[in-house]
């Protein structure tokens, strides 16, 4: 079957009915998912075997359709966890707990944790080792183009689904040629190991880790090549419903040391992120934010990304302008509020002048 050829100009837009405090599409570029493409205000990606296109408005998020598909909205609400977590309530609670979070959150509304496909999420974060967001995105795109099925062409650009596990078994040499380096072996071996251990379920087995404890899920993931504590925590948080997972890297370590006075006695005097220090930082964040601590941690991490500096500054300026306008409105109302005493005096003066004119007219 030939993949359909689409034109973004023919999209029919529907409203997700989600406020800016609950979702902004910058969530898609903060290091969780690496396949969304942004062009001319549109965000595009293959999700659950179909091409999905989103755009942001001042008041909501819209999704596009070429023909009616009643499952798109359901899939998107699940992907963004819109019916499971009230982000505005979480922001309010975290801001009450932590003054630093309150400051950072001022310029970062609507940053959510995605609920991704666990297999794609696992392979993507195996690629993340000693890497940056831009290069990870390039590597994941290569995986899709080389090994995934083509789903559609839109405005001349091809869109591919993430490759199933079977397609990545035995691909070590090909991945090395594509520039994956030592990660090539990790990806190919992880695919082969999961297939051998779970021949009936294969990558679908990963979904069962949503129904076990955080510790069980993390331990299960760390049995695979290229999966250390950070990769396991990312997968637990971003695809396995383990909301207390705290991925710790050098950025999060810097945040912990710079912005928080965590109890790191005995583990802080080191130049490397040791397992003991990793565990201590994660535990302190969990103790501070409680349930959904991984979500709070993600906002702090995003606020530390240079690519978000412009947005943070813009939102803070907008809030300052709104605050000044509100103050001006209050002052103006105070200026025009009628003074009862003054009004009575004015009425008395008017009455006196009117009486004098009447007397003058009568005498004349």
UniProtKB/TrEMBL annotation:
Primary location group: nucleus
Function: DNA repair enzyme that incises DNA at 8-oxoG residues. Excises 7,8-dihydro-8-oxoguanine and 2,6-diamino-4-hydroxy-5-N-methylformamidopyrimidine (FAPY) from damaged DNA. Has a beta-lyase activity that nicks DNA 3' to the lesion.
Subcellular location: Nucleus
EC supergroup of this enzyme: lyase
Keyword set includes DNA damage: yes
Entries under Gene3D superfamilies matching the protein: 3.30.310.40, Helix-hairpin-Helix base-excision DNA repair enzymes (C-terminal) (1.10.1670.10), Hypothetical protein, domain 2 (1.10.340.30)
Pfam family, one: HhH-GPD
One GO term describing the cellular component: nucleus
InterPro entries the record matches: DNA_glycosylase (IPR011257), HhH-GPD_domain (IPR003265), HhH_base_excis_C (IPR023170), OGG_N (IPR012904), Oxidative_DNA_repair_enzyme (IPR052054)
One term of GO molecular function: class I DNA-(apurinic or apyrimidinic site) endonuclease activity
GO biological process: base-excision repair, AP site formation; nucleotide-excision repair
Catalytic reaction list: 2'-deoxyribonucleotide-(2'-deoxyribose 5'-phosphate)-2'-deoxyribonucleotide-DNA = a 3'-end 2'-deoxyribonucleotide-(2,3-dehydro-2,3-deoxyribose 5'-phosphate)-DNA + a 5'-end 5'-phospho-2'-deoxyribonucleoside-DNA + H(+)
Domain HhH-GPD: 127-292
Protein name: N-glycosylase/DNA lyase
PANTHER family assigned: 8-OXOGUANINE DNA GLYCOSYLASE, N-GLYCOSYLASE_DNA LYASE
UniProt keywords, alphabetically: DNA damage, DNA repair, Glycosidase, Hydrolase, Lyase, Multifunctional enzyme, Nucleus
Enzyme Commission code: 4.2.99.18
Domain of life: Eukaryota
Keyword presence, Metal-binding: no
UniProt record similarity statement: Belongs to the type-1 OGG1 family.
């Amino acid at each position: 079957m030939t993949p359909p050829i689409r034109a973004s100009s023919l999209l029919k837009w529907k409203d997700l009915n989600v406020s800016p405090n609950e979702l902004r599409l910058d969530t898609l570029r903060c290091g969780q998912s690496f396949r969304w493409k942004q062009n001319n205000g549109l965000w595009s990606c293959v999700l659950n075997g179909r091409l999905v296109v989103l755009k942001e408005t001042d008041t909501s998020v819209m999704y596009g359709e070429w023909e009616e598909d009643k499952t798109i909205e359901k899939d998107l609400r699940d992907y963004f966890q819109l019916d499971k977590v009230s982000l505005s309530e979480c922001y309010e609670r975290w801001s009450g707990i932590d003054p630093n979070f309150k400051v950072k959150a001022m310029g970062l509304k609507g940053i959510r944790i995605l609920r991704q496909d666990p297999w794609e999420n696992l392979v993507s974060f195996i690629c993340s080792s000693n890497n940056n967001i831009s290069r990870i995105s390039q590597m994941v795109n290569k995986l899709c183009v080389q090994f995934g099925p083509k789903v559609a062409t839109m405005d001349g650009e091809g869109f591919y689904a993430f490759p199933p596990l079977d397609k990545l078994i035995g691909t070590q040499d090909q991945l090395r040629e594509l520039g994956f380096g030592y990660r090539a072996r990790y990806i190919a071996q992880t695919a082969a190991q999961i297939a051998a251990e779970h021949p009936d379920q294969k990558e679908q087995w990963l979904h069962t880790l949503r129904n076990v404890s955080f510790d069980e899920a993390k331990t299960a993931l760390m049995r695979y090549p290229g999966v250390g504590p950070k990769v396991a925590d990312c997968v637990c948080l971003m695809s396995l419903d383990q909301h207390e997972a705290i991925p710790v890297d050098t950025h999060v370590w810097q945040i912990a040391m710079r912005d928080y006075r965590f109890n790191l006695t005995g583990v802080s005097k080191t130049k490397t992120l040791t397992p003991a220090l990793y565990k201590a930082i994660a535990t302190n964040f969990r103790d501070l934010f409680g349930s959904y601590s991984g979500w709070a941690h993600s906002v702090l991490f995003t606020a530390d990304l240079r690519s978000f500096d412009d947005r943070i500054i813009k939102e803070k300026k907008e809030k300052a302008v709104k605050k000044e306008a509100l103050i001006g409105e209050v002052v103006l109302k105070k200026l025009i509020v009628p003074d009862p005493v003054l009004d009575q005096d004015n009425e008395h003066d008017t009455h006196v002048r009117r009486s004098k004119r009447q007397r003058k007219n009568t005498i004349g």
